[in-house]
Amino acid sequence: MATHVLVVDDDAQIRSLLCDCLADFGMTCMQAANGEEMHRVLAHSDVDIVVLDLMLPDSDGLTLCRELRTTSDIPIIMLTARGEMTDRIVGLELGADDYVVKPFEPRELVARIQTILRRTKAQARSATEQKDERKFAGWRLSLIGRHLIAPDNTVIPLSNAEFRLLNAFLSAPGRVLSREYLMDTARGKSIDAFDRSIDVQISRLRHKLREDIKEPRLLRTIRGEGYMLDVRAQSES
Predict the structure, then answer these.
(1) Where is the OmpR/PhoB-type domain positioned along the sequence (predicted)?
(2) Cβ burial 113-138 (10 Å sphere, 16+ → b, else e)
(3) For the chain, which ranges sit under pLDDT 70?
(4) In the 8-state DSSP scheme, what is residue 60?
(5) Which of 200, 7, 179 is nearest to 85 (CA)?
(6) How many CB atoms lie within 10 A of CB 97?
(7) Residue 172: what pLDDT?
(8) pLDDT for position 94
(9) How much is the pLDDT for 190?
(10) If 0-12 CB within 10 Å is exposed, 13-18 middle and 19+ buried, where does residue 105 land?
(11) For the chain, which domains are there?
């Protein structure tokens, strides 16, 4: 079945160019010039992934990304003309799966879309093959709902990247996972090797796990090597 992509950008020329390129790769493209049109398309059409411009006339892309993530786990790629690391990190913190900095080659966007969708489909298959939850240290990770359940039964939402990171740690408890491996798990191999956003994701995951940031017990930093889920802090049930 064709991949359905929603391109949200106020520049009609960019939308047309991207949609023509996506069509060449067998993808079906829908367009929206602003946030209002985006919500309208999402309400009436099946969309597999959203390509969302950071700067829009009626609402900035970061706000729309936050709104989408509160109601849906649909993959999101942010388009931005800004190269500052802060903008990239904020987008990822709000739940975007990846970002592309303008100007870019349309085929780069196609490659990122394909990578994210392959990963999403693989995770969906894996989730159906595994039991509903993974338990650790009184916590539960829902593989279907893709959220955390605290020891007091509070449900804590996770971004796509946070879910992938925690699932990776739970698949290798007690093993040191390198930053490169975790960056690949969170966003794909296209990430800049010097990108510090993985450290931000780990910090946010620790916060959601109610860790003492100065002395984390579960997600430990192994200096010069990476991060590890400390099996000694686990209590599988």
Answers:
(1) 131-231
(2) bebbbebbeebeeebeeeeeebebbe
(3) 1, 82-85, 87-88, 125-131, 187-195, 231-237
(4) -
(5) 200
(6) 28
(7) 87
(8) 80
(9) 43
(10) exposed
(11) 3-125 (3.40.50.2300), 133-229 (1.10.10.10)
